[in-house]
């Protein structure tokens, strides 16, 4: 009896500390009166590996994950000015709420999020659905648009989100409603379409089902490569032909870190001229390849809950 209680407590702790399993897909429900599927996206800057902590709304506490620590790998840094950086480490405790932790590759980075997440929660609607997606651009000073792949959009080009061609960008602190018809079944994606905003986190799955109840549990997997530098930096290095130093020009040891592709290509755009840094499955991956190779079981990676076959 006592042992049962202890196990229960351990499970409860793990769940509050970090969202362990991915959420299965849930088909959206339409508005009862209009039959329209309404979505609202708030786009803003968010810090990865940070948690809204003890200092109230609008503040973050920076979180680290210590791979070699077995008991409690999560730790929170103390942000008060008075505490010296070298002493500013506090082990995870009840004061901190990790439930909305955005991990990505485990480094601290400012990214664009959709309702606090990247990738966004998947949009799942049945074929034929009429969607009204209100996008509220709360970014500090960045305009944006949204574009959905895989749909026909016939007669509806002005909702397709190509900036300057199909619409004026949604300016910072403004909003825009996209009216979209789910005209093609499939697993598509939706992404920001101004500059390289999709590389900063503006993306998500957009799934059009056949409709009707499905008696299986389904998940979306969004796969991405992810970089330590921000995408504007990477894009400009590419434009200026400096990609081999994209790991860091300022690093005196860049000679040894220089990336040289070892394969040829047919005069097309060699996209892989960026050395791969991290792979994300949904919102989690890991930046340290030595850790990925040597002890993947210790890393906080995306997990799916699956069901054992009944015999
Ligand atoms: C983990 O590694 C760091 C530095 O690499 C070290 O300071 C720390 O003591 C290690 N922790 C454990 C539990 O081994
Ligand atoms: C933790 O944060 C989540 C998401 O922001 C919120 O829904 C939840 O109520 C919070 N939990 C506590 C104990 O504050
Ligand atoms: C990766 O992790 C290993 C051990 O956990 C450490 O020795 C190494 O310095 C790390 N590499 C980088 C680039 O952080």
UniProtKB/TrEMBL annotation:
The keyword Oxidoreductase applies. Residues 105-210 form the Plastocyanin-like domain. Belongs to the multicopper oxidase family. It comes from Panagrellus redivivus. One of its GO terms (cellular component) is plasma membrane. Keywords: Copper, Metal-binding, Oxidoreductase, Signal. Residues 1-17 form the signal peptide. This is Plastocyanin-like domain-containing protein. InterPro entries: Cu-oxidase-like_N, Cu-oxidase_fam, Cupredoxin. It holds the Pfam family Cu-oxidase_3. The keyword Oxidoreductase applies. PANTHER family: FI03373P-RELATED, MULTI-COPPER OXIDASE. One of its GO terms (biological process) is iron ion transport. One of its GO terms (molecular function) is oxidoreductase activity.
